[in-house]
Amino acid sequence: MTYEQALEKIHTYQRFGSRLGLERIRELLKRLGNPDQKLRIVHVAGTNGKGSVCRFLYEILNEAGYRTGGFFSPYIEKFTERIQCAGRQISEEDLARCAETVLARAEEMIAEGLDSPTEFEVVTATGLLYFAEQAIDVAVLEVGLGGVGDSTNVFERPEVTAITSIDFDHMEVLGDTLPAIAEQKAGILKQGVPVIASVKDEEARNVVKQKAGQLDAPFYDVTEAEITDVVQDISGYSFSVSFQMDDDMVRYDHLKLTMPGMHQVENAVCALHIIHSLIRSGYRIPEEAVRNGLKEAVQPARFEVLYDDPCYIILDGAHNYGGSRALAYTLHELFDGKNILLCVGILRDKEYDKMAKMLTKLHCDVICTSVPVERGMPAYDLADAFGRAGAFVIGIYDDYREAFDASVRSLQAYDAVVWAGSLYLMGPVRRLFEGEDS
Fold it and tell me: Which residues pair with 395 in a beta bridge?
């Protein structure tokens, strides 16, 4: 099976939808020899920020000399971004080989009349099989959806669990209140396993804390950390931080991030809590590894600066309300009073009215376009939402390529051109900026 054939076959499992529950993934892993039982993992859930926290952890642990696996969702340009090991993406050959094994077991399940695995379950099993083959020291796993029924939630005793944030997203599956969503995400907590929580909403945080108490799991509240000496710059933020973990006072001075934004500072502080939980359990992670890992960490399409001439060109996968809020705050911090062109495409099942109101606070010009997937919101409907929010919409394009051309023609007139919204839009737009045919 070639790499292209493997991807084509994996994607056929989209027809089974996104269904939570662990019965299918457990059966699939059993048929693969239970590779999950050979792994030590750090498990990270959250509405926003979990990808960045996982990236910080992955880079720090690699810098500390651990052979580290990283499982990320979704990918921006290439499928191999999802499964990484020791600083490298899985090769096309290894992905094809591992996927072929997983797909054979999945087909056995279907032939025997069992419920078919979903696409994400097939991908999860492929990643876990690869990590087991690579004899990694530890894997950092990003939850796909929710927590309790997510296919990554098959481990009885992770090294540490973390919840980065609780906000409104996927309400049709997870619930329409923050406590209900918190209950779903707290499903990754395990008996006696330390819990790191960076949850700002008090009600949602209490749900996680109470769940931790029921499981005798030590609970650490990231929001209690003291962050000082913040220096804001588009090349990255620097900061100092101190926080208490039981009897230990932890302090770092003048840490440097490449990813800008106060939300990334908060994500980094969450990662530091996780790192110190690992240190307390015996991991050797020197300060130099922490500093280098934080600085090296870069997440594609998370306020990613592609160019700075003739203006800043930025990609940001602000795909839900929490993401749009973080983007608005970061742009206000870095480009207050500057001319901004916002090019945006959103999925129709998101809170697009709230997102439009938040982004309109930037007083920027707006181009609306459609996301090139079935769930994409039509450009004219999105423009209506921005119009109701009071935005100045200067262009509406069903084809994102036409929106791209319009943004390029406008580069000289703005201090920043920001492409934002669905991650399904970021990859195609990046390829256009890189001169590749999408």
Answer: 367
SS3 (DSSP) at 341: strand
Distance (Å, whole) CA 267 – CA 196? 11
| pLDDT band (50, 70, 90) for residue 438 | very low
- pLDDT mean over 430-436: 89
d(CA 3, CA 301): 25
| Domains of the chain by start residue, with CATH | 3-296 (3.40.1190.10), 304-433 (3.90.190.20)
pLDDT band at 303 (very low <50, low <70, confident <90, very high): very high
Q: Is there a contact between 252 and 290 (Cβ–Cβ < 8 Å)?
A: yes
In contact, 28 and 106? CB cutoff 8 Å:
yes
3-state secondary structure of 74: coil
3-state secondary structure of 20: coil
Length reported for the chain: 438
List the one residue out of 220, 322, 283, 235 whose CA is nearest residue 66.
283
- Mapped onto helix, strand or coil, the DSSP state of residue 194 is coil
Over the stretch 212-250, which tens digit does the pLDDT of each residue have? 999 999 999 999 999 999 999 999 999 999 999 999 999
pLDDT at 15: 66
pLDDT, tens digit (0-9, with 9 covering 90-100), for 398-418: 999 999 999 999 999 999 999
| Identity of the amino acid at 270 | C
Q: Which helix (H) or strand (E) holds 184?
A: helix 178-185
pLDDT exceeds cutoff 70 at 104 = yes
Structure tokens at 138: 């530890």
Query: Per DSSP, which regions of 160-309 are E strands?
Result: 160-163, 195-197, 219-221, 226-231, 238-245, 248-256, 304-307
* Contact present, 343 and 391 (Cβ < 8 Å): no
